[in-house]
Amino acid sequence: MDYRSFSRLEELASERGRPIWEIIIEAEMQESELEREEIMEKMRERLEVMREAVERGLENDFESVGGLSGGDADRLSRSDEFLGSDLTRKTAEAALATAEVNAGMGRIVAGPTAGASGIVPAVVLSLAGEKNLSEEIQIRGLLTAGGLGSIVASEATLSGAAGGCQAECGVGSAMAAGAAVAMLEGSTEQIFNAFALALKNLLGLVCDPVAGLVEVPCVKRNAFAATHALTAASLALAGVESVIPADEVVEAMAQIGDMLPCSLKETAEAGLADTETGRELEENIRDLQQQQQ
Phi/psi at 207 (nearest 5 deg)? Predict the structure, then answer.
């Protein structure tokens, strides 16, 4: 079952009178030759890995590879000065926690990538906690996110090296927004609008990691992208539409990615990586690594 576009996925859902997560799981059954319950069990396993990553990140019991990140999820959880809702706070905490675990070489689910691994789990788990949603509903959200991400993978890219961070944190935010709407039983149109709203407002986001590590600005960017997803989902559920359809937003992302110079696509040659502080940190890390050899 081929749904390599949002319009085709919508068409299949309409023809069958079923939510898109059902179409996505049917397609996965055909491609993987697994039974429905086998796929659901694999999703439960991934959901558990996501929970464990958030918990470990909040415990703050590890060090990142470059020493540029760590402890921020814990700091945020203990702060008395958060300027937002409890859901927003929990989402930001979970995104930071997961991204910090990734920076410390811990176990995460790369969705859509390791560098953007905190976004979908943060939205799905925090929204489920806020609304008291079942594990099955959380899995529906993950299936929806995965299906939306697979369209981008087939029609554009999920690689920061190919398309900049818009293809990682940007798409991750869009996937999470779509998942949130699906979990709250929004329509197919609302899911696609949430995806488009989230992605189009992160178009052009560059990949400029300091010292070439997935730490700065990557870890904190996960928190911003996750809370951004909540805004997109809220707008879509309120009936706000994206003027540009999701398929065309993905096309625009691919075009922008092609236009970005290589120096802003994971090479650490420009942007934040090329600031005075960024270069000093890179040199310090290189010296430390040489001492440890």
Answer: -110, 105
